[in-house]
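Dear Dr. K.,

Following up on our conversation at the group meeting, I've run the structure prediction for 3-hydroxyacyl-CoA dehydrogenase family protein from Cryobacterium algoritolerans. I'm pasting the input sequence below exactly as I used it, so you can double-check it against your construct before we proceed with anything downstream. Let me know if the numbering doesn't match what you have in your notebook.
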Amino acid sequence: MTLAPGTTAHQNTEAPAVVPSQVGVLGGGRMGAGIAHAFLVAGSHVTVVERDADAAAAAHERVLGAVDTALRLGAIEGARSSFADRLSVATDASAFAGAGLVVEAVPEVVSLKSQALRSVEAHLAPDAWLASNTSSLSITDLAGVLERPARFIGLHFFNPVPVSTLIEVVTGAATSPELVALAAGWVSALGKTPILVRDSPGFASSRLGVAIALEAIRMVEEGVASPADIDAAMVLGYKHPVGPLRTTDLVGLDVRLGIAEHLHSTLGERFAPPQLLRDLVARGDLGRKSGRGFFDWKDAS
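The predicted structure tokens came back this morning:
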């Protein structure tokens, strides 16, 4: 599928903007819960699979917490029970047996994702679709462990999922054109904008976002300016909604480091992680989730 200049994926497909009736999400952390929430709000029955009962229960609360927030803010309408009744959690991939689509959202580690995708595919019907939420790993490489690579695609959601408006639709070498068109329709049905990206290191968003973030971190390291002032330069000078260092805190410094290391290994020295980033991660200053990164998040809700 080729995009015309200046267009996005949803402008190039006749696929209906509807989501599958049964959707699975592997991994119920912050991203996985956000993905589950998005499909739940769009009308799907959603099953989240986690590693154990405690993690599954936490994922259930995380998704319904997002529903509660959306209801309170008036972003969605309906009774809480109408969403809760369509959400289930489990601890085994066999729970995905009836799903038309499963989105993998486990940590950004090749071996972990490969193992997870193989496990999920083994439980899916032959006509089901499979996607990865990877932000930088090769869709073509991940598809290499699958029996049905044509039915696999990248769906890169952005954090926080409920308020983000973009999803990268990443096509691997074997991804079928039918799936590309369907995926663009799903994204539109979620109320978000799909952009179509050919599989390459970092895709479009991570490659650009990491490049800016790494340079911002080097500027902090060199004493050019404070994190707040560097962010202000991008927010006020270039109209970015959030600065690169605050975004890094929201994404997680450990996640940012992992992506940078992957891009460094595939694209070269321009993506070499600054020592400051390595030091902060080693110290446990991972951003919002740990309470501190480039900014103090201890009082954040």
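Two things stood out to me. The chain has two domains: 22-198, 204-290. Strands lie at 22-26, 45-49, 87-90, 101-104, 129-132, 152-156, 166-171, 193-198.

Best regards,
J.T.
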